[in-house]
# Entry
Amino acid sequence: MTAKNDTGTLEINLNRKDFVSDQEVRWCPGCGDYAILAQMQKMVPNLGIPREKFVFVSGIGCSSRFPYYMNTFGFHTIHGRAPAVATGIKLANPDLKVFVITGDGDGLSIGGNHLIHCIRRNVDLTIVLFNNRIYGLTKGQFSPTSEMGKKTKSTPYGSVDNSINPLCVAIASEATFVARSIDIDTKHLGEILERAANHRGISFVEVYQNCNIFNDGAFTDFTERSKRSDHVLYLEDGQPMRFGKDKEKGIALRGMTPEIVEVGENHSVEDLLIHEETSPEPTLAYLLTRLNYPNFPVPVGVFRNVEKPEYSDLCQDQSRQAQEKEGKGNLEKLLHSGDTWTVT
# Structure
């Protein structure tokens, strides 16, 4: 709902219930998708945007049911093409707030090329990739993010494919906002989603999401509350990279090679790597995406947050410049220009 205050300025007073649709949520009981949906519905009212300005676009997969459950406009598109459809929506109406909801299969297999080009263009979209390292909707085949050796219905002797790291792909494609969170760490997840939504340009958020039917416990070695302090590194801009129950451990660099050090007698806090999410140079952000359990704690938070010209702004500027130079176009004249044929 909206109202005008004493100054005549339009105030938008929305809450989570305004974004809950009348559709029955049809995910398996205990699925991590529920937590992501709940945090999204709680977060979007904070953006101060009218409900009719939101669009959620998805491809194919369990995560792609998402638009049905958001009481906004939405598109359930075809496999892997959500970034392309979302780009078209944003270019046609730049005032819209557009989210892309995808999964590790939808976004990184058949949709990989669309994802890369959407990111490199810096379209003002918020892409949320649910990563459960499995194909859940089609009943448990290995996915692009499944670890090597993964035994599934389609790889009974273990996968021999190297897995894709979604954040490596995003940073290599020059994403201007890159982040990761965990489905069960709901407070952190909500904060990351809000920061991503407020970023101007492409935002890419990977969420570790548990599929309790076909890949249960894929992340529990480091995501369970009792284990998080020792195995998860929470990135904070401008702060040294520390982890552990008492922050007794940290990440230092030996040349360009990261290593875990004990903060104490042999190493001080000053020896630790400082996180700089706004650095225009993406090398260290990329290096952080390569820290993998069990050799390192898993980094979560914002890896990169920089500003670059946004794609729809550039397209509109180019269109204005062309009209100033050539005049306003005439579609009918264009269609009848050059060589034409009449087919009888």
Notes: The first strand starts at residue 2 and ends at 4. The CA atoms of residues 190 and 284 lie 25 Å apart.
